[in-house]
Amino acid sequence: MLTNALYIAFGLVALALALNMVSILRGPSLPDRILGLDTLYINSIALILLYGMLELTSIHFEASLLIAMLGFVGTAALCKYLLRGDIIE
Question: Who wins on pLDDT, 38 or 88?
Fold first, then answer.
């Protein structure tokens, strides 16, 4: 029963990833594309966590934390570049 729910969740998260890619490619403005990229990070973290639950290992949780940290720093750097035109002051 749990594995069926995980496979359904895999499909839904994969659909969300595909829609994020469409949002990134068709975004009318740069902030919309950055938001799509940030959502792509979050959905990829969800996919890795679901795979970790399916395989019953804890290494996937550590990988998802690493992606979360890099995603936050990347989004903050892109937003700062958008606002000021320079990342390092």
Answer: 38
Each residue's pLDDT tens digit, 50-62: 999 999 998 999 9
Domains located in the chain, CATH noted: 2-84 (1.10.287)
Q: Are 37 and 24 in contact (CB under 8 A)?
A: yes
Single out the residue of 37, 38, 50, 34 nearest to residue 83, CA to CA.
34
33-38 own/partner pairs: CB under 8 Å, 24+ apart: 34/75, 34/78, 34/79, 34/82, 37/74, 37/75, 37/78, 38/71, 38/75
What token pair was written down for 74? 């990347």
How much is the pTM?
0.84
Task: Match 């659909």 to its residue by tokens.
Answer: 15
